[in-house]
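Issue 218. Parser rejects a valid record. Input:
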Amino acid sequence: MTRYLALDVGEERIGVAISDELGMLARPLTVLARVAGPSSFHELAEIIRREGVTRIVVGLPLREDRTAGKQVASTEAYVRGLSEHVQTPIVYWDERYSTDRARDILRETSRRNRPARDDLDAVAAAVILQDYIDSGAEEQT
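Output the parser choked on:
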């Protein structure tokens, strides 16, 4: 079984997506609040345990020119904290355009003109995860 979990780490929220048991299809799972302290780490550790996650894919918010900005440092800081609470391997994945693609997906599937921010964060995590799966990156490691 190969099961991936993806995170779209923002300043206030963390979009979470999960793959099917074969590691082929991603779907939005939930959105967690990003607050000081270990509460979101504990929530993620429980999801990882319960779902049998074998790899965590974290969206890396690179700039257009592929350089790291302020948000990359924030994401990496969050991942350092998470790695103290889970033993599951963690990889980074370029997340440029994932939010725009998630917004397009929600517009196509929603009757609302503007999707809820929580929906957007979880769908963005699913976009990141599906990109990772489709790339075959796991097979190359």
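Fixed in the parser; the record now loads. Residues 4-136 form a domain with the Nucleotidyltransferase; domain 5 fold (CATH 3.30.420.140).
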